[in-house]
Amino acid sequence: MMLALSEIRRSRGRFASIIGALALITFLVLSLSALSDGLYYGTTGSYRVSNAAAYAFSVDAKGSLVRSRLPVASIAEYQNTPGVSKASGVGLLLTSGSGPKGELDLAVFGIDPAGAGAPTTLAQGRLPNPGENNTAAVDQSLTDNGVGIGSTLKVGDQSVTVVGITTDSRYQLQPSVWTSIPTWRAMEESVRPETRGLPAYVSAIALELTSGTTVASIHPVIDTAVLTTDQAALEIPGVQQQQSTLNAIIYTTLLVAALVVALFFALVVLEKRELFAALKALGTSTRKLGQGVVLQAIIASAVGVLIGAISTRALGFAIPAQVPALFRTQSLIEISIFTVIASVVGALFSLRRIARIDPATALGGTLQ
Amino acid sequence: MTLDAATHVDPPRSATPILDISHVTKTYGEGHTAVTAIADASLSVNDGEFVSLLGPSGSGKTTLLSMIGGLLTPTSGTISLGDTEVSALNRKQLTSFRAERVGFVFQSANLVPFLTARENLLYVASLPKKHDRKSARRRADELLGELGLSDRASNLPEQLSGGERQRVAIGRALMNDPDLVLVDEPTASLDTALGRQVVELLAREVRQRGKTGIMVTHDLRMVEYTDRVFEILDGHLTVQNG
Questions:
Q1: Pair (A36, A52) in one structural domain
Q2: Fewer Cβ atoms within 10 Å of its own Cβ: the N or the C terminal residue of chain A?
Q3: Could you tell me the residue range of the domain that residue A128 belongs to?
Q4: A85, containing H or E segment
Q5: Smallest CA–CA distance from A274 into chain B, residue
């Protein structure tokens, strides 16, 4: 212990290099993770804030709200399905509209405000009242575009008055607009002329279940498939691909951290062969020398990770709001712990090298 | 080979043998390629004696010293220090044996470069299972004082001269009050005058403390400081002046 700590204290320059390398690696991993979290949260918000436990889609939609279309009759069928406490239609229209400061990309949700599928993260104002048309609660990200309570948003020939603000409720990074089903349908007919005159339909059906009922136990209505809300979030096009790509980069970078530390300590041990041989000759156990190296790895990586984490947080305040990055404390703690573990694993590779050093080589110029 | 310098050695202080080496052989390799480093060596050293192992490079003197110090295990034969049969100890036991009962002085001082002179002494004091920090600190200061290093105690090895470093190494060897002090060519990295000073100091410290010491050297001029000389050539041991 004394040896390991004194070495760090007296050879600061050398340890500064490994600490610097680990700080940079941590910074990179945390930034990637923030981007990954930001993309995931921005993409799946409207599901995550929904009060529904499950969604029923048309069978051929493969869990995608955009592709799914169900007749309104299915809503009543689900209301009569055992285990379902509430079933409400949900409509989705990805479109562009105009606000106080011009053109906006929007995800318009038609919902029953008192039913399943309504957002739960109301920060200001209210949701549209049941039966009330041409009003909407909108995602907070729209406030950057000058939208507030009382503003008017126009989609096609329809317009809504904003009556509430919800948080963290975006869909595929587009701000959501939560309005009544008739208003949503009117907007859809306005911007998608081909849907005019079709019999009443919704995109999907949001379900709330009676307590004790699992999603798997629900018997789906014909031509529909039921997914849990979490599964549905992952079925949003691109979500899983984004997650797996970014996670692969993150894990690779952690592997690099382990390699960097392994290489560093391999060099340190190589350089200290003679000293370690002498220390062993003096009666230091291999175990004690190994513990010293592991302790040094823990200290170096902890300091490096701390610096990396602080820099990432600073970056979080500096980057523009348009970048979909989200700095979550949980991710920060997890990744910090993983980086320290990766470093220790890297350092463990030098233990065999230390064990192989023969104390007898401490005597004589060369062994005779 | 003449040994004029060694003609006036002190007689052994006591006649009790503390180190007993009996028919020790060390062979490296097997079959046709086997090399015998030490062939059937027997010697005993009395408690309080300071002896030298004199031989040219490659003679096997370091191998013998390594076996005495528990760094190598003999191929055959026994080595005993007091009641302990060193040659029968396992690796782990040898590690504590070296920490508790042997003091080493290496060719080049081999101090820990990032510990001060004082910390180098305290480090070895922390190795035995039973150790007392407070008395270790006192002892380290005492030793450094005797070795004329009081004002260098807080210096790192790189700030010390070669002679000072070797003096710290002597202090380190004596730190744990060992039964046996083993010295490997202490003058190898020093000039003649400085080498003499260091060996003289070493001999004085070993004698004053009633330690038993063995010094390996190829330098005939250094043996005058020891009580007896064992000469070793091609792995064969002969007693000179015993």
A1: no
A2: N
A3: 45-235
A4: strand A84-99
A5: B110
